[in-house]
Amino acid sequence: MTPVPTAPAPQAGGSQTITAAGRFNIDTFDAQLTGESSVIDILGRTHSRLVQWVDPSRPSIGNDLAKSWETPDSLTVLFHLDEAATWQDKPPLNGRAVSADDVVAHFRRSLDIAAGGKAPVAQRYDRYETISAVDSPGDGLVRFSLNRPDPFLLDTLAGEFALIQAPEAVEAFSALWSKADSDHVVGSGPWSFDWADDGIKFAARRGGHRTPLLDSLRVLEPSDAAQHFINAAVDETLVRDRRDSELLNSRFGIATGSSTDLKDIERARTANNVFVSRRQEREMVMSSFAVGSPPWNDPQLIATISAALNRGELSEALFGGRAIAAEPIPLALVSGGISAERLKFVGGYEKFPAQPPETELRDRWAAAGGPGLGTITIDFPSVFDPLYSASSIVVGLLNGALGPQFRAAVETYTTISKRIIDGYYGNGRAAFWFGWGPPFSSPSGERYYAETYAPGSPGQRVSGGSGGTGTTQDALLGLVNSGFLGVVPWGRQFAEVYRRPGIVAAEPSPFWSQHLDYQRANI
Predict the structure, then answer these.
(1) Which of 182, 387, 489, 518 minimizes the number of CB atoms within 10 Å of its CB?
(2) Is the same domain home to 480 and 505?
(3) At what angle do helices 390-402 and 311-319 cross, to 10 degrees?
């Protein structure tokens, strides 16, 4: 009989100190105009969205200010607000209830900002183009009217920067938010914020629609993260440097079992063990090709390059094994996808070191006319190389597998970005780039596919591709065989999150999950 874990209910009260994923770069406390993810380390805890990602790894969306919603027809979504939601008890809101008019005013301002076209790209206001109007048909009701069906509306409303601001706060503080004064942060979330000497601190706010279990939470910048953990200055820390990970592993044992099981927690405490989880990064390593004209309009050329760069070997050589292969759709799909068993037999995804013999790859390359392309230039971003010696590793692997015709060039990201838009990586030119892509803008694999590979999608407009046929296993195998329609995923790096026994929190995520910190507790 399998033993039943002993998982006691977390106790209310107490505090935790954790490290943030990055440094605090504050441009403004205006949630609708900031372009900095680090601002969400603050506002993501003090403010609310209409709906939230309950589990970004699944992914699934649940309620926040909206306790429920319905779709009377394909062009209407009606949200029912949570009656318990209130603004923080600070001027100018003074603890009053959140109203439907507040939410309507917020989204009308967002639509005006979107129409103005001057907001940071990170806000992703392009996704608001399906919203034609927002109004309130009654108390506690917010209605979105669409100009066309939008399967990703909830995804948009759960977006990183989709934090709702009260109209009085906008009126009082919009000209002052760039000063980063904590007195000007007034939201409807479960925490109130203040600056600390060594970071940021939050006090639990009782009486709203979300009640934290902890009394307080402190968040530090990630400098000296490993040493802070060793010195017991933090309860949870994130490390990206392999040397920091090795240092922590030399000081602590790695706990086994569940971080919420009482017996496993006590066992870990007795043995001076800690719980360790992987946290994938929000960017992936990728390449792109302009496939609308020669030479990359022959998908077999790109498919052979993909097969020649084994993702397991890349992860080991570039990042010392601190990365995983990026699947054809690198984010979680609600349905579809290629099974892990089937992916083992896909070129470039074979279990390293097993991979196709060089003669097979060279035959495929020759059949596609690869040798006739002459020298092929691979641009590497200057922030990526020489940091990881990527140019010598990638070029060496390709020259070894396909023949000595690949050469490296190091360029700035600004140059590479312009070249992608201009179609430089193709259109008669034997060239492509290799490096970090932009941050994923959503946890949804379906949205990633829709914006990267669907016919007419932004990704296909840039690459010149005709688009894919869906996310079933057969469709995605076809995507791989067609050279990923010009957008090739290679790998995703990961960091480690170290937690002391008894620290209860959501699983680490590369996406915005600060709103889940009201569930943090100590056992």
Answers:
(1) 387
(2) no
(3) 150
User: What pLDDT digit, counting tens, does each position of 80-121 carry?
Assistant: 999 999 999 999 999 999 999 999 999 999 999 999 999 999
**Rounded to an integer, what distance in angstroms lies between the CA atom of residue 281 and that of residue 33?**
24
- Residue type present at position 84: A
Note whether 453 and 508 are same-domain residues.
Answer: no
Whether residue 478 lies inside any domain: the answer is: yes
Number of domains forming the structure of the chain: 2
Tell whether 485 and 504 lie within a shared domain.
no
CATH number of the domain enclosing 504: 3.90.76.10
**Phi-psi bin for 120: left (phi > 0), alpha (psi -120 to 50), beta?**
beta
Burial 5-15 (b: 16+ CB within 10 A, else e): eeeeebeeeeb
Residue 195's DSSP bridge partners are 200
Looking at the fold, whether 485 and 509 belong to one and the same domain comes out as no
**How many CA atoms within 13 Å lie on the side-chain side of 480?**
23
Q: How confident is the model at residue 2 (pLDDT cuts 50, 70, 90)?
A: very low
CA 223 vs CA 103, 198, 240, 522: distances in Å: 38, 11, 11, 25
State how far the Cα of 346 lies from the Cα of 306, in Å rounded to an integer.
10
* 498, 276 contact by CB (below 8 A): yes
- Nearby residues of 427 by Cβ (< 8 Å), 6 or more positions away: 290, 292, 293, 294
Which residues partner with 31 through β-bridges?
none
Question: pTM of the prediction?
Answer: 0.94
Residue range of the domain that includes 408: 285-495
Give φ, ψ of 107 to 5 degrees: -75, -30
* 345/484 same-domain check: yes
Beta strands in 412-461 (DSSP E): 431-433, 435-436
What does the DSSP 8-state code read for residue 86? B
Q: Are 520 and 217 in contact (CB under 8 A)?
A: yes
Task: Please count the other Cβ atoms lying within 10 Å of the Cβ belonging to residue 337.
Answer: 18
Cα 469 to the chain's mean position, in Å?
25
Instruction: Return phi, psi of residue 483, to 5°.
Output: 70, 30
CA 32, CA 247: separation in Å to the nearest integer? 41
Check which CATH number belongs to the domain holding 414 and give it.
3.10.105.10
Q: Is the dihedral of CA 221, 225, 229, 233 positive or negative?
A: negative
Mean pLDDT score, 22-26: 95
List pLDDT tens digits, range 325-367: 999 999 999 888 999 999 999 999 988 765 566 688 999 999 9
Domain annotation covers residue 59: yes
Over the stretch 229-255, which tens digit does the pLDDT of each residue have? 999 999 999 999 999 999 999 999 999
